Structure formats: C-alpha cells, structure tokens
Amino acid sequence: MVAFVLNGKPVSVAVAGDTPLLWLLREHLQLTGTKYGCGAGLCGACTVHVNGEAVRACMTEASFAEGAEVVTIEGLSPDASHPLQKAWIAEQVPQCGYCQSGQIMKAAELLAQNPRPSRAEIVAHMDGNICRCGTYNRIIAAIQRASMEG
Questions:
Q1: Three-class SS of residue 139?
Q2: SS3 3
Q3: Arithmetic mean of pLDDT, 32-39
Q4: CA 25 to CA 71: how far, in whole Å?
Q5: Rounded to whole angstroms, how far apart are CA atoms 129 and 118?
Q6: How many CB atoms lie within 10 A of CB 23?
Q7: Which end of the chain is more exposed for a tag (fewer CB within 10 A), N or C?
Q8: Cα 57 to chain centroid, rounded
Q9: d(CA 130, CA 79)
Q10: In the chain, beta strands by DSSP E
Q11: Which residues pair with 30 in a beta bridge?
C-alpha cells in the first residue's frame, strides 16, 4: 500500500513499492494526462511533481511517493487557468501534443523556483524534455509569456 496526497487529495493504492509511479497514476488511478514516452527517463513526457520537484514518473518508484505530495497535469489547475496552460494556448505550442503535459510540468517547476527566468535559464531548465514536433521556440515563448502574466 502506498499512501500520498495526489492533486490535493489523500489517496492510498495497493501496489508493490517498486511499481513505476507512472503506472500507478495511469493504470490504478486513471489519470492519463501523464504520458508514457520512452520508459527510460529520457524524454520527459511522464513528468510530474513530487513535493514540488519535477520527476520522471516512469523511473520513479511508487514507494518514493509515500507520504509525499504528488501533482500531475490534472492537478496543476482545476480549470486549466494556470498561467502556463493559458500561455500554451496563446502561443499555439502543441502540434501532436503528446509531450505537452510533461513540458508544462517541467516549466511549472521552473517558474515556481524562478518567476522571471531569462531565455537562457528557460532553455537550460527545459533541456531533456523532448518534443518530437520541434516546437521548442513556441515552448520558450509560452514560458516567457507565463512568467510575465503569472
């Protein structure tokens, strides 16, 4: 049994401690906004927050979440009003959209730590979150927009 706070609500799930957090979220709790990308922690599609830190859920064991606060894309904002979500729409970031929840969660970590990052700081922080469609310039623009509006 793994017990933690998920998107502001206490949950407990009967899974083995070594179950990837990604599968706990997607299969056991039906929160499918967190995506399976590579399964090796290399692409960032599965990024969620554990105690405010962006982690790759595919490589994070469920036991790591024990007693922690976990936030997924579904919990970032109850009505999609987070400045990053609004900026993503305004900047028309997604093409296929598959990586976007991981991109937004990684960007949210950055803005929580540094509300007004420079372009270079954005690029450095987002390094490792891969977008196969290549919308990196729009991702940067959305983060910059959110930092001005947030």
A1: helix
A2: strand
A3: 96
A4: 10
A5: 18
A6: 17
A7: N
A8: 9
A9: 26
A10: 2-6, 9-13, 47-50, 53-56, 69-71
A11: none
95-99, 102-106, 119-123, 136-140, range with the lowest pLDDT: 95-99
Residue 68 scores a pLDDT above 90: yes
Cα 74 to its chain centre, rounded Å, is 9
**CA–CA–CA angle 69, 46, 8 (5° rounding):** 25
Q: Residues 36, 42: contact at Cβ < 8 Å?
A: no
Whether the CB-CB separation of 72 and 25 falls below 8 Å is answered with yes
Single-letter code of the amino acid located at 3: A
Q: What is the DSSP string of 40-58?
A: SSSS-TTEEEETTEEEETT
Tokens of 8: 């502001």
Residue type, 50: V
